[in-house]
Amino acid sequence: MQLRTGFGGLTAALVVSLGLLAVGCAKKETPKEEGKAKPSQPQDKQVAEAKKEDKGHDHGSWWCDEHGVPEEVCGQCNAKYAAECKKKGDWCKEHDRPDSQCFIHHPELKEKFAAQYRAKYGKEPPATEDEEKAKESPKKDDKK
Fold it and tell me: Is residue 10 a part of any domain in this protein?
């Protein structure tokens, strides 16, 4: 009887150990797999490429500081959203962004998005990439 109990406990421990091992292995990626897009998710690859190009750009927050719109609808960072805009004909070819987010041609649109930021955070949104470049341009011209 003791022999059976010993094997029963050993069997239970073995089953639990194998179960934990299987769960742990299923969630862990090997170093070779890290950073690779899964073939069934081509958008992940596009987002990863956009992240590589955007040095230091954080796509994990609600707001896209660089472009002045909520991150999920940023046509310059979100390839899926950009494709939807292009399909609808909402695209500024000259500035490579949704026309509904082209603050260069439609400066009044900036206020629409800035109001969303103020409503959420109670302060003014950070300056966009384009605004930062505009601030730098006069300095460069003054040096000539």
Answer: no
* Contact status, residue 96 vs residue 60, Cβ threshold 8 Å: no
Two structure tokens written together for 75: 């046509």
| In-domain check, residue 89 | yes
| DSSP per-residue string spanning 1-43 | -HHHHHHHHHHHHHHHHHHHHHHHHHHPPPTTTTTPPPTT-HH
Number of domains comprising the chain: 1
List 21's β-bridge partners, or say none: none
Question: Would 37 be classed as within a structural domain?
Answer: no
pLDDT digit string (tens) for the chain, length 144 residues: 444 555 566 555 555 555 555 545 444 444 444 444 444 444 444 444 544 444 456 778 899 999 999 999 999 999 999 999 999 999 999 999 999 999 999 999 999 999 999 999 999 999 999 888 888 876 544 444
pTM of the entire structure? Answer: 0.56
Residue 85 lies in a domain: yes
- CA pair distance 101, 110, nearest whole angstrom: 8
> Comparing C-alpha atoms, which of 113, 20, 122 is closest to residue 66?
113
